[in-house]
Specification:
With 292 residues, the chain is mainly alpha-helical. The chain contains twelve helices and two strands. It is a multi-pass membrane protein.
């Protein structure tokens, strides 16, 4: 939801048909949000004794960390120090073994987000339309609304885990293929034990599609791109929420927290690498003779 609100706020503040603020003015207005967070944290929330704090004067003991706000000792199983000690008991070799078993979740998530953010950061800004085909929006405004629709798609799909659940085979195919349509609008459940996704057909990957369009500009108007970007967000959010749903259901509880934190790195690394790769791709397209 934060992504939708943030992207929509910035697009709305800077759109010339709405508030028409400059990017600098819009960012200054949006600074009220982190200021509000800081005020809430320091003045409105109650801080318990179990919360870890940074102290420059003295080191707090483990017993102080595990004391509740009522002055009572927490059970050892709930002590922050005891949780940390359990995590430290795992050797590097054991952790690497666990990480190896998590690659079946990490690789599809990494590839999905790498492909999507390669589109978002390297290709969408080259997908521009003039006023007659862009509904009166400028190229900069078009890019901002692309991001809004992407975040809407992510939000909808991440909120749909109770309606649509995908098996690991389909999650693994998400980086390569894109879902074309669902044959029904009823809540769809794909059996986790099934070896083949049901009621789904596949077509070309979004990345190749946007790459070709960035070079040859064959899409006729802004609305079609908006629909594809929304659909792209649905794919990314679906991959994310179903991956962590499988981890929560299938991974041993003793390593579940470690697994969740480790797999969460996959999409972040994919986004970071996509940012680096998108720069030479963007420049290469701009240097093409027919693109000029």
């Amino acid at each position: 939801m934060a992504g939708v609100v943030g992207a929509f706020s910035y697009a709305g503040l800077t759109d010339r048909h709405l508030l028409a603020l400059s990017p600098t003015e819009a960012m200054m207005v949006m600074l009220v949000v982190p200021a509000l967070f800081m005020f809430t944290f320091h003045f409105l929330l109650e801080h318990t004794d179990t919360m870890k704090r940074i102290s420059f004067s003295k080191k707090s003991s483990d017993s102080e960390k595990s004391t509740s706000e009522y002055g009572e000792k927490l059970p050892k199983s709930l002590s922050i120090a005891s949780v940390d000690s359990v995590e430290m008991e795992k050797t590097i070799a054991q952790r690497l073994t666990i990480v190896k078993s998590l690659l079946r979740y990490m690789i599809p998530l990494f590839l999905t987000y790498f492909a999507e953010y390669l589109i978002n950061q390297g290709l969408l800004e080259l997908t521009v339309f003039d006023c007659s085909h862009g509904y009166g929006t400028s190229p900069a405004s078009q890019y901002r609304w692309y991001q809004v629709l992407y975040q809407v798609g992510v939000f909808v799909s991440r909120s749909s885990i109770n309606c649509i659940q995908l098996n690991m085979l389909f999650i693994a195919l998400m980086p390569v293929f894109q879902v074309r349509k669902l044959d029904t609008i009823k809540p769809l459940y794909i059996d986790p034990m099934s070896s083949r996704p049901k009621q789904l057909t596949v077509k070309l990957i979004n990345t190749a599609f946007f790459l070709l369009n960035a070079i040859y500009a064959f899409l006729p108007n802004f609305g079609i791109v908006c629909a594809i970007v929304l659909y792209e967000g649905l794919i990314g959010g679906g991959s994310y929420v179903n991956t962590f749903h499988h981890i929560h259901k299938k991974v041993d509880p003793s390593i579940r927290e470690f697994a969740l934190s480790t797999v969460s790195l996959a999409d972040s690394i994919g986004i970071m690498l996509a940012a680096f790769v998108s720069i030479p791709i963007h420049n290469a397209i701009c240097e093409m003779q027919w693109y000029r």
